[in-house]
Automatic annotation (TrEMBL):
It comes from Kribbella deserti. This is MBL fold metallo-hydrolase. Pfam families: Lactamase_B_2. CDD domains: RNaseZ_short-form-like_MBL-fold (cd07716). Residues 18-215 form the Metallo-beta-lactamase domain. Gene3D superfamilies: Ribonuclease Z/Hydroxyacylglutathione hydrolase-like.
Amino acid sequence: MQLTVIGCSGSVPGPDSPASSYLLSADGFNLVLDLGLGAFGALQRHIPVSGIGAIGLSHLHPDHCMDLCGLYVATKYSPAAPLPKIPVYGPAGTAARMAQAYDLPEDPGMTEQLAFTTWSPVQEVGPFVVRTAAVIHPVPAYAIRVEHEGRSLVYSGDTGPAAALVELARGADVLLCEAALRDEDPANPPELHLTASEAGEHAQRAGVGRLIVTHVPPWFDRRAQARAAAKTFAGEILTAAPDAVYDI
C-alpha cells in the first residue's frame, strides 16, 4: 500500500499545496481520500481521471470535498466521457450537498457520473477494507482506517480531541493526523481541530508506528507543528508535503 500526498494545506489551499487530498494505491487500485479545493488538478499529475477507483470523503467542508465539482465536469464533458461511475463514500447527504454546490437539481444531481454511498462502520473498497468512526467536528465527520494485506493507515480527517480516533487508530502502521492549531495559542476553539501536541497524544495512546502531521494551515509552519508533536509522541514523525510518497 502506498500513500501519495495530493494536498495537505489546512482549511484553505496554500501557495505550495492544495487543500486536503490523499491517494492510497494497492494492486492497481486507487482510493482518493478527500478531494479539497485545488486537489483535482494536482491529482491528475499522478493518475488519470479514469484511474480513480473510488473516493472517500471525511466530511463536507469545502476544503475536503469541493473539487468533486471539477471531477463531475470531467466525467461528464471530457472527450473520454462517459466514464464508468466513480464510487463516492461520504457522510449522509453527500449527493444532495454536491448537487447544491454545483447548482444542480438534486435529482439527478451528480448521480449519473458518481455513485454515492453513505459510510458504514466497515466496507470493502477495491482491495481495501475501510473502517470509519465518527469524530468531533461542527459537521458530521469521520476518521478513516484503510487496511490491506496486514498493513493499515488511519486518516483523522478533521477532528477535535476524540477517543474514537484513538480506538480506530489502535496499532496502525501510520496515523495521518491533522494538526491545525498551535499549542501556544491561548484561544483555540474547542471541538474543532487538534493542536500539534494533541495529534502526538492521539498517536501515542493508539500505539501507532508512524505519525504524519498534516492539515497545517498556510499561516503556520508545518515543520514547527511536527516538532511540537514530538513532545507527546515517541515514535517517528513525518511532515506531509505535496507530492510526497510513502510506503505503508
